[in-house]
């Protein structure tokens, strides 16, 4: 399929937006990335990446040096707009759409008709329709459908399906679901993603595409909840849960996931709540899985508190803050929640936090006087209790025998004897 797109604006230069912008630019498309954070904008314009993601820096530096990629605080005119902004949930677990509306308010003045607007942000069914209608509210001289005597605006949804740490690989190889408000919008979006995506491009309507992403992550959340519940049961019964799962997985039709300290990241920890909010009476299993996984950090805190016992001013080595291994992404991380709760519950303790992928503590931990970022060796050598929260490679390389006499809570099973 021959590409007819020469200019694209990507709204949001985060963990999805910047890789999308960079890979499009590497294919010869002129891309402007838009962000509200001037530090992100400055970093990209210097050919730098403001977060950790393997291989991304090469794409960004190359595209910037060739003049194909730049960043701006202001939305430019473009043939296509990709919206990749946060979609957090509110207190009632419904989506907060303020960032999507802000993106629309930046896009609307630049439209002349014929443009393609794609929402990549994970969102509940109906959000893409809301975006389209809001754009038309801002620009009543345009229409979402042909035959109205007005220039047409094409609006579609294409949820990302990539794993942090493998984004630049999976963005190319994974199949993509593309849902349009109209058939023509879906086909136009398919044409855009065909520029770089080698996976199958599957078209449908926007609401189904939105729901598909939520279902994918809810499926994973339910399976993780089963593993996490097994870990709590096994601890009560004195059973090694990792050995239990290893043996059970020898059954030809059983594939139990690995337990952990909870569930983090912007997708699995958030998306199921959108289904629950949309159909609260019908989503009992999905709700229970979320509640099971959300409760796991509290269980970990109790395990650590039990090991500190009557120790006076204990030092606790907390290994990891990221939500998964070998990245710097702390969004919705259960490790951060556990650290916060340990600081509150064990106020006489000193928490020596080791996170090799960040240079400073997140804002949620900065005000806690008994929490400090520490080098790995110093934290381990001083520790009265060790808590493994993330399975970073650097932690796997530690010889656990050197600390076999230090009480341990290993939520990842990497230091098992």
Enter the CATH topology name of the largest domain.
Answer: Rossmann fold
Runs in which pLDDT lies below 50 for 5 or more consecutive residues are: none
Number of helices: 15
Spatial extent as radius of gyration: 23 Å
In round numbers, the mean pLDDT is: 95
End-to-end separation:
55 Å
**How many structural units, i.e. domains?**
2
Main pleated sheet: 8 strands, mixed
Strand content bin = 5-15%
Describe what you observe in this structure.
The chain is an alpha/beta fold and 417 residues long. It folds into 2 domains: 7-199, NAD(P)-binding Rossmann-like Domain (Rossmann fold); 215-410, Rossmann fold (3-Layer(aba) Sandwich). Helices cover 40% and strands 13% of the residues. The strands form 2 sheets. The chain has an 8-stranded mixed beta sheet, with helices on both faces. Strands 11-10-9-12-13 form a 5-stranded parallel beta sheet, sandwiched between helices. Strand 5, helix 5 (127-138) and strand 6 (154-157) form a beta-alpha-beta unit. Helix 8 crosses helix 9 (241-248) and helix 11 crosses helix 12. The radius of gyration is 23 Å and the shape is globular. It starts with 6 loop residues before the first strand and ends in a 7-residue tail after the last strand. The model has no long low-confidence stretch (mean pLDDT 95).
